[in-house]
Amino acid sequence: THRVTMYQPAIYEVWIQGQLDRSWITQMYVETISVIADPDRGPVTVLTATFRDQAELRGLLDRIYNLNLPLISVRYITTR
User: How many whole angstroms separate alpha carbon 1 and alpha carbon 38?
Assistant: First the structure.
């Protein structure tokens, strides 16, 4: 198994309740963005992004929080 550290590049999938527009794809770390119609939650945005480290991931999470968008999940995919 590969050990994850706070200081290495990694890919994460972030699920957010609500619909973000495609302008988020211009963020340097966001690689894909899609919106899913969830019958219970309404629109859910799924971002896949590569972060230099977990501090950069936290920056995105802070931005989502400041927009008052509920965070559904954050999932580690792999190390870059």
Answer: 34
- Considering the entire predicted model, what is its pTM? 0.87
For the chain, the C-alpha Rg in angstroms (whole number) is 13
Do 9 and 76 touch, CB atoms closer than 8 A?
no
List pLDDT tens digits, range 39-53: 998 999 999 999 999
Residue 2 corresponds to which tokens in the numbers above? Answer: 């590969």
Count of C-beta atoms within a 10 Å radius of residue 5: 9
What are the two backbone dihedrals, phi and then psi, of residue 62, each rounded to the nearest 5 degrees? -65, -40
Q: Which helix (H) or strand (E) holds 64?
A: helix 54-66
